[in-house]
Amino acid sequence: MSLLTSLARLRALDEGIAQPIATVRHCHLADRPMVFIPLKLSGEAAAPLAAMLGADRDRPRLLVVAQPRNRDLRFAWAAELAGVLLPYVEGFLRDTETVERRNADPYERAIDAPQILVPNRAGVAFVRLLGRSMRFRRADGPYPVPESVPLLGRWLTYFAERAAYPGSSLMPAMTEELGRHWASGQSGLEDANLAALLAWITTGPSDDAEDPLIWPPAGPATDPGFDAEVLAPAMESGSAERVTEALRTQLEPSWRLMWQAIDLLAGLEEGAGVASRWEQDRGSFSGMAAHVAEGAPPQPRRDGAVAAAARLARMERAQAAYDAQRAYDDPLVMAEHRLTGEAFAGEVVDTDPGNTEGEGRSRKLRPLVVIKTDDPVRLSPGTSLGTPQRRAQGAELVSAGEGLVTVKITKGMGRGRTAAPGAVPEIGERVCYTSLTDDFQGSPALPDAEATPWTHGGPPREYVPDDEDAQEEWS
Amino acid sequence: MTAGPEQVIRNVLADLPRHRGVVVDSPPGAGKSTLVVRAAAHIAATGEPLMIVAQTNEQVDDLVTRISGKHAHLTVGRLSAGGYVPPLRMLELPGVRVGTRIQDLGDPDIVIATADKWAWIGGRVWPWAIVDEAYQMRSDKLLRIAGLFERALFVGDPGQLDPFSIVDGDRWSGLSWDPLQSAVSVLLRHNPDLPVHRLPVSWRLPASAAPVVSRAFYPFTGFRSGTSDGDRRLELATGGMGTPHDRALEEAARSGWALLELPNRHTVRTDAEAVQAVALLAGRLLQRGAVASSEQGERPVTADRVAVGAAHRDQVAAIRAAGVPPQITVDTANRLQGREYDVTIVLHPLSGRRDATAFHLESGRLCVLASRHRHACVVVARAGIAELLDAHPSAEPVQLGVPVKFPDGWEANQSVLEHLSRHRV
Question: In this complex, is the C-beta atom of A312 within 8 Å of any C-beta atom belonging to chain B?
Fold first, then answer.
């Protein structure tokens, strides 16, 4: 936890209300998000019990497995779930735009993408397990399942994996998104309770949030008291209706909370970098859809050596870009970097817009800017810098000391002999420079999976679906 | 009695043509670079081209200088990235060429570059490779370059810091090719019958330190010091004033270790008192004119022979700002890896903390900090670390399929602490 967030948490505790730690919203919020609150049977890893879902806050769908220990009922539930989720997901594939790429064929990208909101991180983990349990099932052979189930399994796997991708908004966990924008006065563990976190943000902490009779847990685990006193007798009675009504009482409060949280996030202005990250989400979504359409096999159980390295490289790049973009978009996030000495802000006290380097043809314009700052600058001379005030500009630290920092502008001031108007900050202007940049440096190529070297176990065996897949334990 | 270092090197060279890969574990200061230079010359003598992989530009420059200095008849090509400026001393070396493309180098006996640079090279296969600091190299880097060579010698120190990532890599833990594991762990999991040699003698660590570091961080493989008691001496030219700092320096000069213990208190990371103590120790060490005598002769401990180490970058910045003489190296454990000094001053990673996280318990961090010195190591810490350790047993979730790693950071910390407590001031 950063110093600023710790301070915000202390202040939240002191004032009895959560404190904002972001000035803009750093996640995309879809026009038509799908809220998905899954519940599982306690004591089981991936036995679905119920789910409340829908894109319309007034008409949630409730899907229930009246006896989760019955495998056939579970897959019937999965097929019902597919009946709601797949049309929602596939609805985004109709409208596409053509994207030109350098050194590659143009491709079709969906104009909008699905967004499935789950209450918390455990919800994402459960979606991953659901996907894992469904994607290798088949409509023929032993233990056949409805045709839509394996397809839903692949999509759920995709969404859960994408949730681990820094900056992606395809499957946000609500408590995490809220926690990125507000600091409550409780621990990180307690923040995973949607009701408690929302109470901190809206009205201040309340004991009600801890009372499962008022606010049942937002899943996927259920309240043990409810399990013992309500759910178990209802299941034993054999009445599907009774089970359904019991579970409705557990899900409806969370449903209301989820939409309240969406409204809260919608109240924040969207950060400048959100659109470009959503664009990546749309591209990724279209890629996955194309993959499915081509009839490619389901995602493997484990990443192969090459796939793992490729995924790691993508995630590291996304993480660096996400961190940098948030800082550029949001002065409160930038303040964290100013505290650690990776950024500084201050007033321009002197400029030399006509400064040049080199002679003759290699003579280059390198305007100098001197900034007076109170921030601790822990950057060494020669560090390349960027600035949120002028996104296209590149600069370099010349010297820093005694509250004065000299910066040399190296990029983005026009091609003329003198700097373009407005490119060099004026004396008296407040500016901020940081060593964070989301300049994308391509990563070197990886070998093809078939060419996996001997150090990493050699080429992997190809996956061939067989009846063994169906024998897998699914409990 | 285990084999002597010379015998180990001969065994390694003899194994090279017999196996696809050979691994050499080297404790701190055990002559790893010497081995790399010997092996490079040995392979070059067969007339077959060799590629060498190191992890940082400094390591590459260092190897180029050493190889060229020892075997001036060898031609060495130094591949570098675009923005790299080679140090002057390297351009003057005979037989060394620097270039950004493999074509620019002519056809040298040996080509050296960082792993990052090698990843951009393709279209050619070298019969031989030496991978230096292979335990610091992430396995995904090895994956990118493994197609470039047929056989390789992997050299590194298993006790140092593990490679890391800014993203959560749990989804791969337990996989034999986990990209976050070190190159050597992945190599050995797929090729368990490759020979693993160990260099048995540390030439850097004095007789006072080798057993401590060996017991704490290399509990099963062990090593000994190349020098014996009395071979290394550290003398302070001027008398002390009896302050705790002076007494700590005297204890370190006498025994090779000192623990300057500050009163027990929970503090922020940049604990002003501890930072001040570190800076003061560094300043006093120079003022008192320390002289180190060893098998290499007698020489004054100048500022460039002293290093200050800490766990976090903000601590390093605070120590620098507290007035450490400018020529003294102040850096984090990560950056001190592979370096050597006469005297080190260490801010204990757990000093003043309320909790002991996996980061602070990582055995490699303390191992790096406690094994950079030829003569003495002074540790600054707040009291209460033992109690802190007792209150925070390692509680990391156990992942299936992940080989148990030794040493355990918790136990290594206890072991070092117990030794330090005998040199408390």
Answer: yes
User: Mutate which of B53, B125, B190 to test chain A, going by most A C-beta atoms within 10 A?
Assistant: B190
List the beta bridge partners of residue B22.
Answer: B153
Q: pLDDT of A219-261, one tens digit each?
A: 899 999 999 999 999 999 989 999 999 999 999 999 999 999 9
Query: What pLDDT does A1 receive?
Result: 67
Q: Is residue B167 predicted with pLDDT exceeding 50?
A: yes
What does the pLDDT look like over B359-408, one tens digit per residue? 888 888 999 999 999 999 999 999 988 888 888 876 777 778 777 777 78
Residue in A with minimal Cα distance to B170: A164
Please say whether the beta carbons of A246 and A233 come within 8 A. no
Per-residue pLDDT tens for A281-294? Answer: 999 999 999 999 99
Q: What's residue B1's pLDDT?
A: 44
Q: Of B147, B169, B172, which is closest to A453 when you measure between CB atoms?
A: B147
| Residue B149 backbone phi and psi in degrees, to 5 | -130, 160
Measure the CA–CA gap between B77 and B49, rounded to whole angstroms: 11
Please, what is the end-to-end C-alpha distance for chain B in angstroms? 37
Contacts with A243 (C-beta within 8 Å, 6 or more apart), sequence order: A64, A66, A231, A234, A235
Handedness of CA A460, A463, A467, A472 (dihedral sign): positive
Cβ-nearest to A316 among B120, B166, B177: B166
| CA-closest candidate to residue A179, choices A402, A21, A396 | A21
Mutate to test the interface with A, among B172, B173, B189, B400 (most CBs of A within 10 A): B172
Grouping H, G, I as helix, E, B as strand and the rest as coil, residue A461 is coil
pLDDT of residue A145: 87
Spell out which chain B residues touch chain A, with contact meaning CB-CB distance below 8 angstroms: 20-21, 116, 119-120, 122, 139-140, 142-144, 146-147, 165-169, 171-172, 175-180, 183, 186-187, 190-191, 313-314, 317
Cβ burial B41-80 (10 Å sphere, 16+ → b, else e): bbbbeeeebbbbbbbbbebbbbbbbebbeebeebbbbbbb
Q: Do A445 and B122 touch (CB under 8 A)?
A: yes
Q: How many residues comprise chain A? A: 475
Domains, chain A, in order of start with CATH, read 3-301 (no CATH), 343-434 (2.40.10)
Instruction: Kindly indicate the confidence band of residue A120, based on its pLDDT and cuts at 50, 70 and 90.
Output: very high
Cβ proximity of B137 and B115 under 8 Å: yes
For chain A, the straight-line distance linking the first and the last C-alpha, in angstroms and rounded, comes to 37
In a 3-state reduction of DSSP, which class is residue B55? coil
Summarize the confidence of residues B105-128 as an average pLDDT. Answer: 90
B125-161 pLDDT, tens digit per residue, is 999 999 999 999 999 999 999 999 999 999 999 888 8
